[in-house]
Write a structure and sequence with these properties.
Structural class: alpha/beta
Shape: globular
Radius of gyration: 15 Å
Number of helices: 3
Largest sheet: 3 strands, parallel
Number of strands: 3
Oligomer: single chain
Distance between the termini: 24 Å
Length: 101
């Protein structure tokens, strides 16, 4: 698995995330491994291509926030309108496959 481009989302203002993603991914995004959540997920949903896939395994930007302060993603409709496959998983579901670890 290769990576074409990367950036530190913490170094980009929230309101500039979509522009940064468009700059780095001018043809859009086909696969997104989400471990951040919050505004990063929202920005990525804007840039994802039709029939893209999201693998959601974390939301580090939200873990330590009380439920009332967690970021509510406003553009989840993109999952429907772009026919995005969005699937979550948690590593502990696979612990039987890796005994002793």
């Amino acid at each position: 698995m290769g990576v074409d481009k990367a950036f530190n989302y913490k170094k980009v203002a929230d309101e500039d995330l979509v522009a940064k993603l468009n700059e780095l991914c001018p043809k859009g995004i086909d696969i997104y491994f989400d471990n951040v959540g919050g505004v990063m997920t929202e920005a990525t949903l804007e840039v994802l291509n039709t029939h893209s896939r999201v693998i959601a395994c974390g939301a580090i930007s939200q873990y330590n926030k009380p439920p009332a302060e967690r970021y509510g993603i406003k553009n989840l409709f993109n999952v429907i309108s772009k026919c995005i496959t969005f699937q979550g998983f948690i590593v502990s579901q696979w612990k039987e496959d890796f005994p002793g670890r």
